[in-house]
Amino acid sequence: MNIKMQRNDLPKVRGEYLFDYALRSQSFFKVGGNCNVMFIPADVDDLLQFLTKKSQDLKITMLGNMSNILISDYGIQGCAIQLKNLNKIDFSDNYVEVQAGTLLSKFISTCTKKEVSCCEKLCCIPGTIGGAIFMNAGIPGFEISDVLISVSGVNFSGEKRTFAKDELNVTYRCGNIPNDFIVTSVRLKTFSKDTSQILNEIKELQAKRLKSQPIGQATCGSTFKNPSGARAWELIKQAGCDKLSVGGAKVSEKHCNFLVNTGNAKASDFVKLIDIIKSKVFEQTGYKLQEEIKRIGDKW
Ligand SMILES: Cc1cc2nc3c(=O)[nH]c(=O)nc-3n(C[C@H](O)[C@H](O)[C@H](O)COP(=O)(O)OP(=O)(O)OC[C@H]3O[C@@H](n4cnc5c(N)ncnc54)[C@H](O)[C@@H]3O)c2cc1C
Hints:
Elements: E1 16-22, E2 34-40, H1 44-53, E3 60-63, E4 69-71, E5 76-82, E6 89-91, E7 95-99, H2 104-113, E8 116-117, H3 129-135, E9 138-139, E10 142-143, E11 148-155, E12 160-164, H4 165-168, E13 181-189, E14 191-192, H5 195-212, E15 218-222, H6 232-238, E16 245-246, E17 249-251, E18 258-261, H7 267-285, E19 294-296
Parallel strand pairs: 2-5, 3-5, 4-19
Antiparallel strand pairs: 1-2, 6-7, 7-13, 8-14, 9-10, 11-12, 11-13, 15-18, 16-17, 17-18
The protein binds flavin-adenine dinucleotide.
C-alpha cells in the first residue's frame, strides 16, 4: 500500500489511531493486508467529531469482528473503523438498546443472567451487534430482524439517523443498511425467560455446531447464501466441489459451504476457489451461487 497517512492528516479525537495497521491476525480467515489507518472511537460523540472534521475524500470502511469478511491481500485504503468501545447495553421493560460494537456472545450472556430472551439463538455466531444487523445474521428459523425494532447510527458525513425496521426492507442475510451508514446502536424486542431454559437451548445449539462445523479453524462461516428452495452445501457436494482446494484455501471436510485457511492461504486463493465452486455448481446444477461473505478492501 503506497499511501502513508499521519496523525496530522486526521481530526483530533479521544479514541485511538493505529497507522499501517495489520488486519490479518484479527480477521477470521487470517488473510489480508494492512489498512492505512484504523480508528477506534472512544464513544459516539468521538465518532461524530471524526466524521464531521475528516477530509471529504478519506475513504471509510466499517469493520465489526471480521467474522464474515474476506480482506484483500492489498489491504484497505483509507480509514477502517471498529467500534470496540461502543458496548453499552441498556435494558427497558420490553426492549433493549445495545451498542453496535458489543459482541453477540457478551450480549447474550448479559441477557441470560437477567432472564431476558432476545437473540440467544445466535449464540454460535462470532460477530458484533453491528455486523449482525448489517448481515441480518440468523440460523434456520430465526434471524436478528425477528426482534429488531430500530437501528440508529450516522452516515459517513456525520449525519445522525434512526431507521425503523419497516424502513429497511430487510431480507435473508441482508440488513439493507446503506453502504455509507455506520450502525452505532440497535433497539431489540425482549421477552422474559428462565435463565436455565435459555442456557439449555444454548447448550443444545453449541453441541449441534460442534458436530457439523469446523469450529476452531480459520473460517468465516457459510461462504454462499442458500438459494431459494435449495441448500448451498448440497449443491456444492452435488457438483463434486467438496474436496477442492486452491493454495492454502480449502473446502472444509466438516461442512462444504465453509472454506478454511489451512495455514498459508492468501485472499486471492479464496477468490479463485470461490470462482471455481460457482462455475462448477452452475454447470452441474444450474444454480448461480451468491456470496454471503463480503469482500473488503482494494484491487480484487
Ligand atoms: C464459525 C462461524 C459460524 C458462523 N455462523 C453464522 C450463522 O449461523 N449465521 C450467520 O448469519 N452468520 C454466521 N457467521 C458469519 C458472521 O459471524 C456473521 O455474519 C456476523 O454477523 C458478522 O459480524 P461481524 O461483527 O464479524 O461483522 P464483519 O464480518 O466485521 O462485517 C460484516 C459486514 O458488516 C459491516 N459492518 C460491521 N459492523 C458494522 C457497523 N457497525 N455499521 C455498519 N456496517 C457494519 C461490514 O462493513 C461488513 O460489510 C459465522 C461465522 C463463523 C466464523
